[in-house]
Amino acid sequence: MTEQGSISKPGNAGQIASFLDKVARTPATVPSNSIGKLIFALDATASREPTWEQARQLQSTMFDVASSLGGLSMQLCFFHGMANFIASPWLNDAEGLKSRMERVHCLSGLTQIGRVLEHALREARRERIHAVIYIGDCVEENPDALGHLAGKLGVINTPLFVFQEGHDPNAEMAFRQLAKLSGGAYGRFDAGSARQLADLLGAVAAYASGGYAAMLQFGRERGGLAQQLTHQLPPR
User: Fold this and answer.
1) Distances in Å between the alpha carbon of 176 and those of 146, 164, 185?
2) What is the pLDDT along the chain (236 residues), one digit of tens a residue?
3) Which of 30, 121, 202, 217 is paired with 65 by a 20 to 30 Å CA distance?
């Protein structure tokens, strides 16, 4: 699978800078008396089968990390097949999320990242969403259109944390830009590395349920990829 086009063009520099300035000036804190809300979105096309199984096994990490920070409410989103996009109800426990993920079968199809971002925007306009996670390995959509949506998420303080499996350089370029435009962060993990993916998921759960300070502390304790995420976020 390959990316079509490039998400960054010279003519877009001013627009990107404007988005990032708005994001940087918006505080990213979670009130201590509120539960964190996180959208957990995954590419469920055919190539994603091994990582989907890994994510299913590790998703409880996010609830575990959040339990001491006020808790977490999570919505599972995924796409697969020709045009299937599905979003679950909001879930407050690991077993409920695991049960949902067990029913999913990966199917061949093109990426639908735009639908993930559009859905996240609708949800965030109804009620504050503290973070969006997206896990995938390629981009097959118009990258400029995706960048526009990511920028809108950034303006309403809904950071996107994009975790890439594999080494596709075109996908990495696009994913890094989407994360940056939203005020979030990018991370890449190796296929089969449960520790890497668990650390990335745990760091975002800490952010969603406890804010930047909680994520910073989690990164200090875990090091590695978890700590690298904090270095990418706008100054708080």
Assistant:
1) 12, 10, 7
2) 333 444 444 445 555 555 555 545 544 444 444 799 999 999 999 888 888 889 989 999 999 999 999 999 999 999 999 999 999 999 999 999 999 999 998 999 999 999 999 999 999 999 999 999 999 999 999 999 999 999 999 999 999 999 999 899 999 999 999 999 999 999 999 877 899 999 999 999 999 999 999 999 999 999 999 999 999 987 66
3) 121
Residue 17 counted as domain residue: no
Does some domain include residue 20? Answer: no
In angstroms, the CA 161 to CA 85 distance is 19
Tell me, yes or no, whether 118 lies in a domain.
yes
Question: Which residues form the domain of 203?
Answer: 35-231
Whether residue 131 contacts residue 159, with contact meaning beta carbons closer than 8 Å, is answered with yes
Q: Tell me the CA distances in angstroms from 146 to 13, 98, 117, 137, one per residue in order.
A: 16, 29, 8, 15
CATH number of the structural domain spanning residue 44: 3.40.50.410
Residue 27 makes CB contacts below 8 A (sequence gap 6+) with 157, 236
Are residues 129 and 34 in contact, defined by beta-carbon separation less than 8 angstroms? no
| DSSP tag of 62 | H
Which pair of structure tokens corresponds to residue 110? 């093109």
